[in-house]
Amino acid sequence: MTEAVTGSVTALDLEEMARQMLAFQDLTRELDAIIDSSSDGLWICDADAVVIRINPASERINNIQASEVVGKNMRDLLDQGFIDRSAALEALTTGKVVSQLQNRQGRKLISTGTPVLDGNGRVIRVVVSERDVTEIDNLQRELEEQEALRDQFRSHMLEMQQADLASRSVIARSPLMVNALKQALKVSAVNSTVLILGESGVGKGLIAELIHKNSSRADKPLIEINCGAIPESLIESELFGYEKGAFTGAQTAGKPGYLELADGGILFLDEIAELPQAAQVKLLRFLENGRVVRLGGTKARTLDVRILAATHRNLDQMVKDGTFRLDLYYRLNVIPIHVPALRERRDCILPLVRHYIDLFGARDSIRKRLTRAASDALLAYDYPGNVRQLMNICERLVVMTETDLIDVKDLPAEIAVGGNQPTMGGGVWHDEVTLQETLDKVEKAVLVKALETHGNQVRMAEALGVNQSTIARKLKKHGIA
After folding, report:
1. If you average pLDDT over residues 31-48, what whole number do you get?
2. 164's torsion region: left (phi>0), alpha (psi -120 to 50) or beta?
3. What is the C-alpha separation between 112 and 100, in angstroms, rounded?
4. Looking at the whole model, is its pTM more than 0.70?
5. Can you tell me whether residue 98 is helix, strand or coil?
């Protein structure tokens, strides 16, 4: 009876041992899978610093086979120069977790040795994990270089802007222009979005520079982007930047956009009406939350950028036509400033003329003066190209006039005959010009103005009451394209 009981207990014990053995084998396989699948390198040493095991990641990182180091003592590997420092040996010595930066075969590794203690507090194993940080280090260095280049670019651009603004004078004599300048100075003190409106060449960029110069962001850059000068396919990448490999032809390291370059400063979006619909959506999102995502990226960057926008087009009509987003229009049109055309501020014309003649004369060491008749003709002209056209005319007069005195005969034909109101009075005619020459100048001025107004020969002929063939012949006669 006793033998039967003893036999029965032994069978149960054997069965339990078999189950435990299977469980132990499963646990061993699971631990092996975890160790071997780790992307970090793992070294396991015993209490005497003998290598018991390394995983495949360590083989890859160190370019070795496990058989080359397993069974060897870390002290011997250190003496042989295989490693320059040993986190395992330091962890065994101190009994604490140790982290080290190691250089191995031109690569940088971070090694962390962790002692494993038994129930009595004695070290029985040391587990060393190692991670290759060479690529991370290279990326960090590349990022620092990009940041340094960006800061250098911004600093250089700020210096150029300050020098350019210092060389330009703001001349305002008419009430309309004085009011526009007062508005610009007033909004300089705040961070609101400003929409600058006015015809081409009236000086919208100068208003933006004035706001920047007198704002709290004056020591930060004013980044100007002409939305109409950048191809539609590139406007998003230029404005918002792009990540590495975002599209064919992209720089390998990616590129920050104009918004990032303007961080802390002001972004001036000239010709905002030319912004494509897709870019309008992204700009609207930035105006709402101050965050941008580079093209091809997923990480959002929070930026502190004030937006100034300008256009010569009718945004109200564009909104009605569906070519400009209504919500973006409201976001931009927080504070509108209208810059009057030059013909609406005639009090500014002669002071501007004298300023630019003196400016270009000083540049080329040439001194020029205007006759009264020339001044009257310049004052009577409407300047469809506004201040930009006036500047060009003044430079031409300084360079091309043969004498020190600029007279009516030196002026462009469309100005000499009284602009778009040709007349024989007002000092236009003078002794040195024949009747035929005067009539030719008047005819040419009328044709130039009609072409600007009507755009083609058919409509010009209808407006002037002549045949289209007559218009074609006279355009050819006067060399008007």
Report:
1. 84
2. alpha
3. 6
4. no
5. strand
At which residue do the structure tokens 């792009």 appear?
Answer: 242
Question: CA dist 48 to 118, 208, 317, Å?
Answer: 15, 73, 84
What digits encode the pLDDT tens for the residues 137-182?
777 777 766 666 666 665 555 555 544 544 455 778 888 888 898 8
Tokens 């496990």 found at: 66
Helix/strand/coil for 50: strand
The DSSP code for 103 is E
pLDDT greater at residue 294 or residue 267 = 267
Q: How many whole angstroms separate alpha carbon 211 and alpha carbon 188?
A: 5
As a whole number, mean pLDDT of residues 438-453 equals: 82
Spatial distance between the Cα atoms of 134 and 141, rounded to a whole number of angstroms:
11
Give CA angle at 134 (130, 135), nearest 5°.
115
By three-state DSSP, how is residue 171 classified?
coil
How many angstroms separate the CA atoms of 151 and 256, rounded?
12
Distance, C-alpha 251 to centroid of its chain: 14
Phi, psi of 13 (to 5 degrees): -60, -45
446 in helix, strand or coil? helix
User: What residues have CB less than 8 Å from 66, skipping those under 6 apart?
Assistant: 53, 54, 58, 59
**Confidence (pLDDT) at 193:** 94
Burial track 353-362 (b if 16+ CB lie within 10 A, e otherwise):
bbbbbebbbe
Helix residue ranges per DSSP H, 38-168: 56-62, 66-69, 74-79, 87-94, 134-166
List pLDDT tens digits, range 88-111.
Answer: 888 888 888 988 887 776 677 888
Which positions ≥6 away from 367 have C-beta within 8 Å? 361, 404
Residues 325-368: pLDDT tens digits? 999 999 999 999 999 999 898 888 998 999 899 989 888 888 88
Tokens coding 110: 């971070």
Q: Closest Cα partner for 203 from 377, 381, 360, 389?
A: 389
Q: State the burial class of residue 119 (Cβ atoms within 10 Å of its Cβ: 0-12, 13-18, 19+).
A: exposed
Check residue 451 and give its pLDDT: 84
C-alpha to C-alpha distance for 353 and 357, rounded to whole angstroms? 6
